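Much of our argument rests on the idea that a fold can be written as discrete symbols. In the encoding step, the backbone of a single protein was reduced to a row of integers, each denoting a local shape. This step matters because it turns folding into a mapping between discrete strings. For completeness, the protein is quoted in full, as a sequence line and a line of structure tokens:
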Amino acid sequence: MIQVTHLTKMYGPRVAVNDLNFEVKKGEIVGFLGPNGAGKSTTMKILTGFMPATQGQAVVDGHDVFENPIEVKRNVGFLPENPPVYPEMQVFDYLEFAARMRQVPKGSVSASVKGIIDKTGLGEVQHRLIGNLSKGFRQRVGLAQALVHNPKVLILDEPTVGLDPKQIIEIRELIKNLGNDHTVILSSHILPEVTATCQRIIIINKGAIVAEDTIERLTTRLNKGLIYNLMVKNPAAEGIAALRKIQGISNITPAGPKLIIEMTPGGQEIRDKIIETAVQKSMGVLEFSAERVSLEEIFLQLTTTENATGDQI
């Protein structure tokens, strides 16, 4: 659905985007992460035809962004960090205007607007002035204008910035549901939101991609082994000794009834073996859970000055 090849953007001597290469498949929700000034917004603006690249290629649904920008815009919905809304207009009127600008057929404009109002939960405010709406509702209006022409691709730049926790949850659920019908690229600094919403992440730093994968695979590639927490009734030495013999376990630390089991990085799946051994040794399994490196830890490791080199792992 989206193919980016050797994409570069220069502002004079400064490199804002440096030789980006990535692909987003149809129906994916991909998180696009990076610190301020990393090049995220610039990349999104290039993909939507808002600005040209210095060199490289970007293709959306088979259309080259630079050779066929109008066709690309027909297939893309864009919500920039600051929603492009007119505060003096009513919600319904503004969305009708947006639909016409997006070349929705004249006979379908009203139905398209009504449908997107229902989808984004704007029914109760559709006849109010946008300037009198809360931040959360203005954000919904911005999302609605990006969706009113039913685009195949949706590009969202910080869609929940400035929202309260309740509004963040509402927008998050809305975005997850949008993934059923649209390909979505989502930029956000709220990392738990990305974890809950996105299927894959691309991390960019200083204009270059430093990581691209699922969170689970990044955890392994960063040489972080899994940690299992095993709660038992009987943390006897015999049982712990038997667990230590299981191939793939690097260390076990008893903490009362809790056993902290550290795995060898990149090891095979052995959860069943751990449970089976604990049962055989009559340890009385109460609870079993896994800890993973958080997205925050991955993000910091890949983007802090001392760790980020600009090389893709």
Notes: The domain at 225-291 is CATH 3.30.70.100 (Alpha-Beta Plaits). The chain has two domains: 2-219, 225-291.
